[in-house]
Amino acid sequence: MLSILNGLSSYSPRTVQLPSGIPSWDTEAYARAMARRYPKDEVLDLQARNPSDLRRQLDLIARGEERIIASLALYDKFFLPAEPVIETLVKEPLMEIYRLSRTFRRLFNHWKVVLEKGGAPERWQVLLQEGITLSFQGLPKAEFVFMRGGSGRQQTCYPVKGHDVSNALQILLSQMVWALLQNFNANETECWAGAAEYTNLIMRETAWPFPSLMRYMPLLVLSHCIPPAASVETPPAVTFSTKLYANEHFGKKDITNIVLRWSALTGKGALPRGEMACFAKDEGVAYRELRRYIGATGRLTNRGNRLMAQAAAPMDEKLLASNVRAWVGMSEELRWASGGQKGYVKTRGLTLCRWRHYVDKNGNLTKRGHLLLARAAG
Q1: Which InterPro entries does the entry mention (predicted)?
Q2: Each residue of 284-309: pLDDT tens digit?
Q3: How far apart are alpha carbons 292 and 318 in whole angstroms?
Q4: 150, 244, 270, 305 — which has fewest CB within 10 A?
């Protein structure tokens, strides 16, 4: 077995107990749950309390992309052919990370959707850093050090304490996430901050062993990727100012307007699927999300028809507040008899998406729900 790239072969992802019942795209709730699982992880706790705007938006955009694609050739999709020894030692660990990490799956699956629509660039090339050569005698005498670049959200990637050396796969994962974010129209600063934040979470999801005990390893870099410096300086207040691949705020109002525009364009006629994909891309919304409201033939689904009916006669705030208040005052028996929250919402002409703004999954008022009732009472 070649000892070259031992930084890759030494890593073996392990199954970790992930928060159940909390979707990974629920940025704050999922991050808090992971932080509670690792109470000594200060960086993870910091990210849970201060998630970047980029992560909030991209989590919403890629929220429907958490599934495992069993037949996915991840390496071949993202990378060009490389040295056989590199391919051998990179493919298997990356697929294990894909299998274990919800966050990495969402990012990569969404990138794959963008790629299939012609919106992503060519594949990347995995190379040894300049000056490093393959040798059958052992590892090259080269170190790569990641250090924390200040305070706040200025961390790069694990390990962040002192001058611990990161292993090769860790560096590659960080750069791969950075490259994925490049395809969502984020600027340089946002990409580095987002890559750091996502990489930290991905490593915890896969029970990443750190700090690394490796002192020497080859440096893998992505072609056309700016190699990270020893200390990456990122402004403490990272704001996401540019537009992502999908809407900056993907909420009910946005999708309602998009479906209305589609209906106005097509009427009741049927159009090829490809035209709907182009329309989704132009509107900056995921094709998968649009298909919830528009069928493959171009006609509205039942959910789309309900959305249009609500848009034509929107429920005013007082009526909404009365429905919320009625739910809060119901006993458990009555709630069960009404079909739970889903049944209750359906009979009152609401969508569960809108209802969740005011009542959580446990049936309790959210902060927005309390404010709604307070406004109605005043």
Answers
A1: DUF4765
A2: 777 777 888 888 777 788 888 777 76
A3: 29
A4: 270
Residue 303 and residue 316: Cα distance in Å, rounded? 20
Beta strands per DSSP E along 22-144: 126-128
Rounded distance, CA 143 to CA 163, Å? 11
- C-alpha gyration radius of the chain: 24
The answer to whether the beta carbons of residues 168 and 222 sit under 8 Å apart is: no
243: left (phi over 0), alpha (psi -120 to 50) or beta: beta
| SS3 state at 88 | helix
Report how far residue 345's alpha carbon sits from residue 348's, in angstroms, rounded to the nearest whole number.
Answer: 5
Indicate the pLDDT class of residue 146, thresholds 50, 70 and 90: very low
Tokens of 156: 């790069």
Cα–Cα distance, 179 to 6 (Å, whole number)? 23
